[in-house]
Amino acid sequence: MKLVMYNDFRPGLLVDGNVIGLGSLVDEYMGSHVEDVMINLIEDFASVRDDLEDIADSGGGVPVSTVQLRAPLPRPRKLICCFGNYKEGQDREAFPIDMFLKSPEAIIGPGDTVVLPNTPFTICHHEAELALVIGKRSKHVSQEDAMDSIFGYTAFMDVSPRAGIGRGPTMIQKSYDTCAPMGPCIVTADEIENPHELDIKYWVDGQARHDYNTSDLEHTVPELIEWATKVMTLLPGDVIALGTNHQGIGPLQDGETGTIEIQGIGAFSVKVMDPEKRSWPKEIDQEMAGRVREARPG
Taking the model in full, what pTM does it have? Predict the structure, then answer.
């Protein structure tokens, strides 16, 4: 099942290229604040799943091209991002797990615009990532039970102005408004047979950039959930972005369009605007990709 938010942040289902509204069921959620609508639906999912499946089977709806898709989680309770977390194509020892918090206020949706900050930075990179959405309150979860904590998956861009405010904490550099595009939907976990075998691709104005498979993950989804729930309680609607393979990383700059596609989830694009009109070579950043690759511990 693919859940979306569209137009005036109404919840719906994406079925065979059509967006289907939730009918009378939507009234239970539209009284909520926009940021709570999908979270409430996730919390209630077990009790409304049969109704949602009936709606999905009923057909109808309107072509997705005729609506404005929104971020499926306009403001998750927590947005947690993994540092690196890919082997970069090398058979080497893994780095220890590490994560950082990114501001939920940075989230935008399909068709929205990333506005690069007017603070000094050396380059702004795209990072195409698979993200998981937590489905239930989770604390001290073992790897064996970790997959039960997942509601679903979505596609995520970790837009990264490097050295944004001096050389301060990553949370600051990563948390500028509009620097967390998410979409086009949340695919429920039962639809993704194996999150460790998904193709992730990214283009800038049609130029191929990221092209990797999640089989290159350093740490698996159960490992990440176990680690995170030792630190904090995860709640329905929390998001963990699994990191990126830096081979294929490149800059985003004024006037460009960035597009992500993840197998089994779908694709979406965002525009880029830079009031400062900065520019970088329109190509894969081979220096950055090589530096990260060589930094993997041997």
Answer: 0.95
Per-residue pLDDT for 31 more than 80?
Answer: no
Rounded-to-integer distance, Cα 67 and Cα 58, Å? 19
Distance in angstroms (rounded) separating the CA atoms of residues 122 and 70: 30
Strands 199-204 and 10-15: unpaired
Instruction: Report the distance separating Cα 70 and Cα 73, nearest Å.
Output: 8
Cis peptide bond upstream of 104, omega within 30: no
pLDDT of residue 297: 60
Please give the average per-residue pLDDT across 135-147, as a whole number. 98
For residue 77, the tally of other CB atoms under 10 A from its CB is: 16
Nearby residues of 239 by Cβ (< 8 Å), 6 or more positions away: 73, 76, 78, 79, 80, 131, 132, 133, 134, 154, 156, 182
Residue 105 has pLDDT above 60, yes or no: yes
In 3D space, the residue among 124, 85, 131, 101 whose CA is nearest the CA of residue 245 turns out to be: 85
Give the 3-state DSSP-derived string for 57-102, with helices as H, strands as E and coil as C: HCCCCEEHHHCCEECCCCCCCCEEEECCCECCCCCCCCCCCCEEEC
Residues 234-254: b if buried by 16+ CB within 10 A, e if exposed: bbbbbbbbbbbbbbbbbbbbe
Determine the residue type at 165: I
Which DSSP state fits 143? G
**pLDDT score of 153 more than 70:** yes
Task: Give the residue from 128, 253, 123 showing the smallest Cα distance to 202.
Answer: 128
Please name every residue paired with 81 in a beta bridge, in sequence order, or none if there are none: 100, 241
What the block records as the tokens of 6 is 């569209």
Q: What is the pLDDT of residues 40-64, one digit of tens each?
A: 999 999 999 999 999 999 888 999 9
